Amino acid sequence: xxxxxxxxxxxxxxxxxxxxxxxxxxxxxxxxxxxxxxxxxxxxxxxxxxxxxxxxxxxxxxxxxxxxxxxxxxxxxxxxxxxxxxxxxxxxxxxxxxxxxxxxxxxxxxxxxxxxxxxxxxxxxxxxxxxxxxxxxxxxxxxxxxxxxxxxxxxxxxxxxxxxxxxxxxxxxxxxxxxxxxxxxxxxxxxxxxxxxxxxxxxxxxxxxxxxxxxxxxxxxxxxxxxxxxxxxxxxxxxxxxxxxxxx
Length: 248
Ligand SMILES: Nc1ncnc2c1ncn2[C@@H]1O[C@H](COP(=O)(O)OP(=O)(O)O)[C@@H](O)[C@H]1O
Ligand SMILES: [Mg+2]
Known about the structure:
single chain; six-stranded mixed sheet; four-stranded antiparallel sheet; alpha/beta; binds adenosine-5'-diphosphate; Rossmann fold; binds magnesium ion; 27% strand
């Protein structure tokens, strides 16, 4: 979240609000949030439960439509796009990683990773596929099925799948939420390398100050509003901010 002069934003949110209606009640999940994420940076999104982190990520990724404001992905204003166009944009320009790996159990590792290409009717670039699978440490497991892999390995398959389309931004919602410490560390080191070596842009929601410390910066949300930012976050600093926001 630096000034435009420093580089190109992969994604920007401009006064984004999101309201959910359930019956007579309206929940304002995001309240006029403005934020920009430069290409080639790794940002963690933190805040208490219910503070709007997932809504923020889903709006940034075109999965959720803001009630007000706009999201600009690269140079595309998502608010001007139809649902069909958004579906294509998500498929072609965003990589998704969720806490539940969402792999297809009947497909091999290689087939899971290249699935987004097949859905977009594109050929796999063999060299890039090998680079990605090598980078995520799965070169030896190409023909395995997800059920034969550990949770950490499955999440690395999901990350490889998220990278295969050279997306403008990779969004990850609690990617280490279901993993033990050691697997978490491998997944976080991988996301770090994805930024440093492949120049990807990564936005990651997490509850964990140690996970957040792998990012270049942390943005904090509270009650759907931006509640500060921390560059080069150390785990203790992140934990102190979270305490201040009333999480612990
Ligand atoms: N689909 C939905 N329908 C109704 N309310 C929702 C929906 N999604 C999120 N909310 C509400 O919006 C607020 C923010 O939710 P969320 O973005 O999931 O927060 P977080 O990820 O920080 O826990 C919460 O009050 C939540 O209950
Ligand atoms: Mg959430």
